[in-house]
Automatic annotation (TrEMBL):
It is found in: Cell membrane. PROSITE patterns: ABC_TM1F, ABC_TRANSPORTER_1, ABC_TRANSPORTER_2. SMART domains: AAA. The chain crosses the membrane at residues 37-61, 73-93, 152-172, 178-198, 275-300. It is a multi-pass membrane protein. Keywords: ATP-binding, Membrane, Nucleotide-binding, Transmembrane, Transmembrane helix. This is ATP-binding cassette, subfamily B.
Amino acid sequence: MQYNLYDIQQADQTRKSSMQVIRRLAPLVGDEKNRLILAWITMLLNAVLTLVAPLLIGYTIDHDIQQHHMQGVWIKGWILLGMYILAWVCNYLQTLLMGVVGQEVLYKLRNQIFQKLQELPLAFFHQNQSGDLISRINSDTDKINQFISQSLMRFIGLIVTMVGAGIFLISVHPSLGLAALVPAAGIFIFTQLTSKWVKNKNAYSLRTTGGMSAEIQESLHNFKTIIAFNRRDYFRNRFETVNQQNYQAAIQAGVANNLLMPVYSLFSNMAQLIVLAYGIYLIATAHFTVGLLISFLVYVNRFYSPLQQIAALWSGFQTALAGWDRISYILSLESDLAVQPVTHRIETNYQLIFDKVSFSYDGKHEILHEVSFQLQKGKTYAFIGPTGGGKTTIASLIARLYDPVSGTIYLDGQDLRSYTSEIRTKKIGFILQDPFLFTGTIRENILYGNEKYVRYTEKELMRLLQEYGLDVLLDKFDEGLQTRITSAANVLSLGQKQLIAFIRAVLRHPEILILDEATANIDTVTEKQLETILNKLPETTTRILIAHRLNTIEHADEIFLVNAGEVKAAGSLQHALHMLMQEERKS
Ligand SMILES: Nc1ncnc2c1ncn2[C@@H]1O[C@H](COP(=O)(O)OP(=O)(O)OP(=O)(O)O)[C@@H](O)[C@H]1O
């Protein structure tokens, strides 16, 4: 088991080069091949038209204007107009196509991340804050969309125009061309030196946005506690700190992003000056024409102006790369709870076996140490012990929310890890201390994931509930099955939520039913009703009760004491109580 594997904040610290990130971005736009090819053609046509126009202007000056050949001037004028209109159409089409590509990528990317989040194990969510994850799904993906839809093709188009202009400058007059390109070398070196720094500033800015989102999420989630303890000031201060960090990071990113622009302008002006001075000297020595110098100056502009525009797009590019960096790490994660092949089966009459199971959440503190016990089908087992002893951890291991660090858990003689999640969740039902309910009605919540009864009519469902004795529990809700539950489920008491989770678990007919403090918030009358329902379950259902209140476990067939990494069979309730008191005295 690899600890901290899922800590995405830590992964953010290991920066990758732009090329590494771009290579991983490529498959994402690969599906949009047709649109990309079309956008590429329109972009290329636009670049060619933009490049040919100055040549035509220079030619017209030297061959038509200077020779007073007016008809030639008119014809070239109309051709130029046609070229500009065509270039505009190409530009428009390309923007349209890339807008669609950007949205498609955004849509797919968000789906992919969400799907990945569903596959990742619980450890991932313990190691990361949900606010930061939301920020990655919402904001970072949109940074990539913005870059693809608004900048990508323009970016490539500008590079094509620049290369074309550079080729023209060198081929028309090599020495003047080279002189014009010298300042570009300065720009190249400057960009190389600063781009890693710019990207890091943008990555930090995105990280602080994620941190702020996590802070908001935590405050909203714990709002009741904040008010109850009058800790508004504490959370306000915490928010102010992350907001301040985000503000400063955004300013730093802005400074970094806008640094290139003035530097590019400076180098571009230097190039114009060099061409003008050297060009006039060449004309004076009869080695160059006026028309060519004008074309040359336009091409110098065609070379440096894209550079300036690239500088403006550069920040978007760096932000998109930083965003993609943060997203692609999540996409590359694999669940360490994958289904394992069946290596061997053991012959046994026990339904569930813990064989020398050790477990740790963080690799440092061992919660369970070589724990062994066996459970038989159809019996009721109770796990008791002091707070923090490891009872819930045992239940989590049975539900395979985690894998043991060492040792094996066998379910019906087969390694628990070799069952698919469908089969495992069918066999094992779970009622938690604080169950999670979805927005919707009680009916929807109790039939969640239950394919067998999901299409039952209200009447059929009621008959079924009566059969199991569950109908009495619905009396606790004003509108019965149709009672609405809001997203936060705050309209219900904890006890009511536990009742819904109870009905949900019983209706799934699990072979093993685990109740983790599932009745801790329920009154004694209702608790008796639950006991009757549990007794009505098929004889083959194994019940595992985790409880603090000892009256709830008096009918258990066997009691286990869980403490300090060990599980001991306690025999009778009397003996269990005695052991518990001894343990408490020791601690
Ligand atoms: N997700 C987690 N990450 C790290 N440590 C955890 C996690 N969940 C529980 N622990 C630690 O594991 C130990 C056992 O916790 P567990 O919840 O299994 O105890 P418990 O016996 O069920 O306690 P309680 O009776 O209070 O429910 C505790 O020390 C707890 O702090």
